[in-house]
Write a structure and sequence with these properties.
The complex is a heterotrimer of chains A (307), B (323) and C (309).
Chain A (H helix, E strand, L loop, with lengths): L1 H28 L3 H5 L6 H11 L5 H14 L12 H36 L4 H15 L2 H15 L11 H31 L2 H8 L4 H13 L1 H24 L5 H10 L3 H29 L1 H6 L2
Helix pairs in contact in A: 1-13, 5-6, 5-8, 5-11, 5-12, 6-8, 7-8, 7-11, 8-10, 8-11, 11-12, 11-13, 12-13
Chain B lengths: L3 E14 L2 E14 L3 E5 L6 H9 L7 E10 L2 E2 L5 H7 L4 E4 L3 H4 L6 H13 L4 H14 L5 H4 L9 H13 L5 E5 L7 H18 L2 E6 L2 H7 L2 E6 L2 E7 H6 L4 H9 L38 H5 L5 E4 L2 E3 L6
Parallel strand pairs in B: 3-8, 3-9, 6-7, 7-8
Antiparallel strand pairs in B: 1-2, 1-4, 4-5, 9-10, 10-12, 11-12
Helix pairs in contact in B: 4-5, 4-7, 5-7
Chain C lengths: L7 H4 L9 H26 L51 H37 L1 H16 L2 H12 L3 H12 L1 H15 L2 H8 L4 H38 L10 H7 L9 H28 L7
Helix pairs in contact in C: 2-3, 2-11, 3-4, 3-6, 3-7, 3-9, 4-7, 5-6, 7-9, 8-9, 9-10, 9-11, 10-11
Classes of the chains: A mainly alpha (307), B alpha/beta (323), C mainly alpha (309).
Chain lengths: 307, 323, 309
């Protein structure tokens, strides 16, 4: 198990470096950020000056090296738009994003697990049909639209919840729920179908023959096997969560990372955008590592075969 | 003779679907003694597995229901037990071995864990050392080598034959009175089969458990069963000692089945098979179930079901031709 | 809906379909309705106008989708008392006809999806077959990249490209495609692994066929089924992704009538002019649902093993 973790860790670090390089290259090669920042009145010299200021006149590997050394020192560059160090901006925004993302994720996963299991065990019942309905809607309705409709219903028409911004618990309700909606239906569907497959298996029959209570059979025997499949998708689901976070933060003017990156893009603030994307990459890879380890812990076959 | 452990009296089990009522078991009666192996033979879908599940009261709900009869274990009609009481019986008084060893075990728990669960559930032992001892002795009963190490293994680390023994250990861990074995050797290859059957006999000798052996393979029956019942379309057509079934079968169906087993010591030109198909359990013919395919059919066979008649001690047949 | 019986003996019983007439009709409908909707959308997208044969003013859309008309702004749909049949679904804050924008939006959504599907399916299939067949380091490497691509939010790639190239049609297609090949690669590789063990491949090897030829002539034709299924199921996802990007302002730039843009336009007017955001949202939901139902039907027909998708 320990060996497994170490191997995965090394792979993650390597991947991270590769991605950082890729991101770096993408931003510079696909367009000239200096041109984006220039105005109609800029002369060729002005543009060149912008390039020098941003360090774009150096070769790409050189730029990358400077960047890496800067990062190690804790300097992620300066935002062109706000003229503040990126690290500072991220530092203020990140906690806000986490306040949104973590509750949403927890809520969505717990909800998906419960609903998925309940749907599977009371197959074709009223609850199960509800579960199936949510799954279909969840995959078809765009998250941003749901958020807007939710704002319309709860904030504008019924006026029981605020429309935007940070604040007390009531400010959390809509953003957290609408963000959870991005990932709950998909996970729930998977848990349900995985559970149905497991409940049909021979070893569950044997568990019944052993005279175990239905509760024990579901929550101890079936579930542990049923979560294996959804777990493999957890990484993908997290990507959806991040996408959702960007959208929800924009709709609700929630000052998190998503919000500032959108602002950054619209303002062509490429150091900011670049830094945030790399940071999120670290985050994403980290989460995937954790998921991989959990997966190995639950399924002994993976553990033993990873020697 | 040892006492009767399990008595099934006129069991009726049906499946209720949108298409109608499938009468899977339609009036089945037999008994099994302590230390005896009783065979339940028949083609696929004749009702033998459903009979086994009915004894355990583990029919798939809501479609499956026991609609009549009694199942008496050590003098008590277990059909009258509450669900909770029945659960206590399952695994401890009555147990079952399933067909496929590759999928019968939960892949994410160790072998020891899975046996221990049974022990803890039914024997109410909490002390982990005592539980472990029980697990090891269950593994030993099924002759699994090095049980102290084995209990930490996962199912995927074991061969099919070994897994089947583990399933046996789980089933025997609480020393049940009746063990129902549902085609446990079908998934094993021939060399392992013989070993496994020998193991059954050994376990039975040590624990005196009554075994109901469900199979379609007459070779296995000849090896291990003392008495046999032949089932067809939800009914038992003939019950007798194994030797009698082979030497002097009376029911035309039994005779046909025995004939269709290919033999090495006889020169058969063609493989004998019975023409036709078993009847649909939705639309059963009014008379004898086997009438449409019976070579000796008479008019009365098509109209009325033959009663079960004991033609000599321990040998009963349901056939109009045999009186 | 078959009754579930977990006992092998009972499932071998006579085959009488337990489906009632009502259930059968419903099942038919889940195929017919999506197909109708999808065909409609494709039709509408193609015939929004006939500019592609040189007749820009002829077509299904009653108005030019980007033409502003300030006196006509914020008109509600025709069934409202302030509405009129001149603008069946109303107008937005620039006086542009919602219906026309919706129709042209279909064109945008479908063309983005089509292009992305073509690119990603090709790349994904090639990588999947290569990885699955060749095995070893190549496969391990490709799999890691695939896993990472699957876990990476495409929205961030879009942002990255938008910040240096500016938002545009090309940016959107490129951004989604850079990561979009991964689902194909993953599935096709799985299928390739399975096919690789089959006898007809062993046969080909025995007679000395080159690996490339085996992959092309034996493996590829057998992955076409799952491939088509993924493609159908991807349509919905891609439409939502493009709409989300446009909604945020990093996708197709306004005034182009991407459905995402339309929802964004009406975002702050939900209380006064609900129709601006509502109709595009419904359009997206309908198309995606139809795509998913159709994809499910196709999968059940062609390859039920893929139910996990």
């Amino acid at each position: 198990m320990v060996r497994f973790i170490i191997v995965r860790l090394i792979q993650t670090v390597v991947a991270l470096i590769g991605i950082a390089m890729l991101i770096f290259v993408l931003v510079r090669v696909s367009g000239d950020p200096a041109l984006m920042l220039a105005t109609a009145a800029s002369t060729e010299e002005d543009i060149q000056q912008i390039r020098v200021n941003l360090g774009l006149d150096k070769s790409i590997p050189e730029q990358f090296w400077i960047f890496v050394t800067d990062v190690v020192k804790g300097d992620l560059g300066k935002s062109l738009f706000k003229k503040r160090p990126v690290t500072e901006m991220i530092g203020t925004a990140l906690p806000n994003s986490l306040k949104l993302i973590i509750p949403s994720w927890v809520l969505a996963m717990v909800g998906a697990l419960l609903l998925g299991v309940l749907g599977a065990t009371r197959r074709d019942g009223f609850l199960d049909n509800g579960v199936k309905f949510i799954a279909i809607l969840g995959q078809a309705l765009p998250g941003f639209w749901v958020a807007i409709v939710a704002v319309f219903i709860f904030s504008v028409t019924w006026q029981i919840l605020p429309t935007s911004g940070l604040g007390g618990i009531d400010h959390y309700v809509l953003p957290v729920c609408t963000l959870g909606f991005f990932v709950l239906p998909g996970m729930m569907r998977l848990v349900r179908s995985s559970m149905l497959d497991v409940l049909d298996s021979e070893y569950i029959k044997l568990a019944r023959i052993k005279g175990l209570s239905e509760r024990r059979i579901i929550w101890k025997h079936a579930l542990r096997n049923a979560v294996i499949a959804p777990l493999t998708v957890a990484g993908m689901l997290f990507a959806m969560l991040i996408t959702g976070a960007v959208i929800i933060e924009t709709v609700f003017s929630w000052p998190g990372i998503g919000f500032i990156i959108v602002e950054g893009v619209l303002a062509r603030d490429f150091p900011l955008v670049q830094a945030i994307v790399i940071m999120v990459a670290v985050f994403v890879l980290g989460i995937n590592l954790i998921v991989d380890i959990t997966y190995a812990y639950i399924d002994p076959q993976i553990r033993y075969q990873q020697t | 003779m040892s006492e009767i452990v399990l008595k099934v009296e006129d069991l009726h089990t049906s499946f209720f679907t949108r298409a109608g009522e499938f009468k899977a078991v339609d009036g089945v009666s037999f008994y099994v003694r302590e230390g005896e192996t009783f065979g339940l033979v028949g083609e696929s879908a004749c009702g033998k597995t459903v009979t086994g599940l009915s004894i355990l009261r583990l029919l798939p709900e809501p479609a499956g229901k026991i609609v009549g009869g009694k199942i008496i274990l050590d003098g008590k009609n277990i059909l009258e037990l509450s669900k909770k009481e029945m659960r206590a019986y399952r695994g401890s008084m009555i147990s079952m071995i399933l067909q496929d060893p590759m999928t019968s075990l939960n892949p994410v728990y160790t072998v020891g864990d899975q046996i221990a669960e049974s022990v803890r559930q039914h024997q109410h032992i909490q002390d982990s050392k005592m539980v472990e001892d029980q697990v090891i002795s269950a593994l030993r009963l099924l002759r699994i080598p090095a049980p102290e190490q084995r209990l930490h293994d996962y199912p995927f680390q074991m061969s099919g034959g070994m897994r089947q023994r583990v399933v046996g250990s789980i089933s025997m861990s609480c020393y049940p009175r009746v063990l129902i074995a549902d085609e446990p050797t079908t998934a094993l290859d021939a060399t392992i089969q013989a070993q496994y059957l020998a193991l059954f006999k050994d376990v039975q000798k040590k624990t005196n458990v009554a075994i109901i052996f469900i199979t379609h393979d007459f070779g296995v029956v000849a090896n291990i069963c003392q008495r046999v019942a032949v089932m067809y379309a939800g009914k038992i057509l003939e019950t007798a000692k194994t030797s009698t079934i082979f030497k002097a079968p009376k029911h035309p169906y039994t005779i046909a089945l025995i004939h269709s087993v290919p033999r090495l010591d006889r020169k058969d030109d063609r493989l004998y098979s019975i023409e036709g198909q078993p009847p649909s359990l939705l639309n059963l013919p009014p008379g004898c179930r086997f009438a449409p395919r019976c070579p000796d059919v008479m008019d009365i066979c098509r109209e009325q079901q033959p009663p079960e008649v004991e033609i000599e001690e321990g040998h009963s047949v349901s056939c109009w031709k045999v009186k | 809906m078959q009754e579930k019986a977990s006992d092998s003996e009972t499932t071998a019983k006579p085959v009488v379909s337990g489906l009632s007439r009502r259930a059968r009709i419903m099942k038919r409908l889940t195929f017919i309705i999506p197909v109708v909707i999808l065909s409609l959308i494709i039709f509408v997208a193609i015939f929004a106008d006939l500019a592609w044969i040189g007749l820009p003013d002829v077509g299904l859309a009653p108005y030019d989708p980007v033409k502003m008309s300030l006196p006509d702004r914020l008109k509600p749909p025709f069934w409202d008392e302030d509405g009129s049949t001149a603008h069946l679904l109303g107008t937005d804050k620039m006086g542009r006809d919602i219906l026309s924008r919706l129709i042209f939006g279909a064109r945008i959504s479908l063309s983005v999806s089509l292009l992305v599907i073509l690119i990603t399916s090709f790349v994904g299939t090639v990588l999947g077959i290569l990885g699955g067949y060749l095995g070893g380091r190549t496969e391990a490497f490709l799999m890691r990249i695939t896993d990472i691509s699957l876990a990476f939010p495409p929205i961030l790639v879009a942002m990255l490209l938008a910040v240096s190239m500016g938002p545009s049609f090309t940016t959107v297609v490129l951004a989604i495609s850079l990561l979009g090949w991964a689902p194909y690669a993953r599935l096709i590789r799985g299928e390739t692994l399975r096919l690789r063990e089959m006898d007809f491949v062993a046969q080909a090897r025995v007679i000395g066929t080159s690996p490339f030829r085996i992959m092309l002539r034996h493996i590829f034709p057998n992955v076409i089924n799952p491939l088509i299924i993924i493609m159908t199921l991807q349509v919905g996802l891609l439409i939502i992704t493009e709409a989300s990007l446009s909604f945020l302002g990093v996708g197709i730039p306004p005034p182009a009538p991407s459905w995402g843009n339309m929802v964004n336009d009406g975002r702050n007017l939900v209380d006064t002019a609900w129709w601006i955001s509502t109709f595009p949202g419904i359009a997206i939901a309908l198309v995606v649902m139809s795509g998913n139902f159709f994809g499910d039907w196709l999968r059940d027909k062609l390859d039920p093993r893929l139910r996990q998708l």
